[in-house]
Amino acid sequence: MFDIFHTYSFNLRRNNSLDPYSSGQFNQYQQMPPMQPPKTNGKAIAALVLGILSLMIPYVGLILGIIAIVLACLSFKEIKQRQEGGRGLAIGGLVCGIIGTALYGIIIVILVIALMAIGATTDYYDVLSSIPSLNMG
């Protein structure tokens, strides 16, 4: 047992390796360089940012949501062709863009219906007809 410890400490001092089975000789197997993560697609990042902004910025959210949807669709194609990363970002941008567009689309429809309902009441027309016309002459 002392001999195994002695061999291990000798190998550690000899080649700064923690491998007790190495003899200090050159390793004949070359190690592969670490794998680089794939490059993240820029359009996917932009789609996510615009999708989140479409949920948070009032009145402009409809336009930002549409742009986020378009960028997400374009980034899906680029990610597949170029083998890039960022598919999750593109999915998040697409979902946020759809939700933002739908949310502001529903708000606009409700406002149009409300304005049409107010405009269709007879009291509104009666109020306007009771205003005397200005005759300057």
Describe the protein's architecture and organization.
This protein has 137 residues and is mainly alpha-helical. It contains five helices and no strands. Helix 2 (42-56) runs antiparallel to helix 3, helix 2 runs parallel beside helix 4 and helix 3 (61-82) packs antiparallel against helix 4. The N and C termini lie far apart (122 Å).
Set down the secondary structure blueprint.
Elements: H1 2-15, H2 42-56, H3 61-82, H4 87-119, H5 122-129
Helix pairs in contact: 2-3, 2-4, 3-4
In short:
By secondary structure, the protein is mainly α.
Structural classification? mainly alpha
Percent helix among the residues?
55-70%
- Our count of helices gives 5
What do the pLDDT scores average to? Answer: 80
Beta-strand proportion: under 5%
Helix and strand sequence: HHHHH
- Report the major sheet: none
Distance between the termini: 122 Å
Low-confidence runs = none
- Radius of gyration from the alpha-carbon trace, in angstroms: 34 Å
Beta strands, count? 0
Large-scale geometry: rod-shaped
